[in-house]
Amino acid sequence: MSDTEKNKVAPDEAIPAAEIPADVKRDRISGVFSTQSVDKIGTGTTVRKTILKTYWFAEEGPTDPEKGRTILVQPLNKNNIPSGPKDEVPLGDFLEKFSPELEFYQKEVFPKLKELDATLKRAEEQREQGALYSAQFEYESALNVDEENVRANFGLGLTYMERGDTTKANDIFQRVVSLDAAFAPDHKHLFNEFGINLRKSRLLDQAVDYYARALELVENDENLHYNVARAYYEKGEMALCREHLAKALEMNPNFEEAQQFLAYLDKQAEEQ
């Protein structure tokens, strides 16, 4: 299915999910939709009503066994780019309140998304090639379009760290830890790289805060506990280092790296 075909409601929307046979294939909801609200302007005899239209990028999430089908909606920013936090809307409420905007998606949103993705790809290629100033320019261009873009924020932060500019890297860190989306599974590669580079850049307090924020949002991840243990080790806080290694091994008793790290700490303690 093409990108422009995604912006439509599947024909079986009126049928409860539980009544759809398992072998029936259906499109998942994805694309740009709008909602309308009425705003009153003025007072008394001068009052008048204005209809306000808000555009959203909507994408169907995984079907929840209890909630059924739900739709994740994200507002479009002033540049017509999906940006900011996503809200989960039950399918029934979504069908009642949201209207498809196929033409707006095709003419306004899709070209902007395509251009943004091309900018980010150029930035990532240039960073990989060591062209750090060119990468910075491209990442900043992406952030001018979407200041909450996770790939751009991570990439710019990594670029600053690779240049040794810890002051600017710390500024990006402050922005990243405020973005819940930065810790989502689809950004895991960049998320891991960013945390490791914070530690390697000797931004140890930031690394600890970063992993603490991640642990608030990501449950049962032994790798997070292992990574924060390494940051605490380099800060010289051995008790906290051991605490997080113990949590990592509690989640995964066969976690070889954590076992080796703990054995190393034990050997160090014996030699002192």
Question: How does this model look, in words?
Answer:
The chain is an alpha+beta fold. The chain has a domain at 1-100. It contains 10 helices and 5 strands, in the order E-E-E-E-H-E-H-H-H-H-H-H-H-H-H. The chain has helices at residues 91-97, 102-128, 132-145, 150-163, 166-176, 188-200, 204-217, 222-235, 238-251, 256-271, and strands spanning 30-41, 48-60, 70-75, 87-90, 99-100. A hairpin with a 6-residue loop joins strand 1 (30-41) and strand 2. The longest helix is centred in the middle third of the chain and has 27 residues, at 102-128. The chain is globular, with a radius of gyration of 23 Å. 29% of the residues are buried. Residues 1-20 have low confidence and may be disordered.
Q: What is the overall shape?
A: globular
Radius of gyration: 23 Å
- How is the largest sheet built, in terms of strand order? 4-3-2-1-5
What is the makeup of the main sheet? 5 strands, antiparallel
Q: Report how far apart the termini are.
A: 65 Å
Give average pLDDT, whole number: 87
The sequence of SSEs as H and E is EEEEHEHHHHHHHHH
Number of strands: 5
What structural class results from the helix and strand content? alpha+beta
**Percent of residues in helices:** 40-55%
Give the number of helices. Answer: 10
Low-confidence stretches: 1-20
Q: Roughly what fraction of the amino acids lie in strands?
A: 5-15%
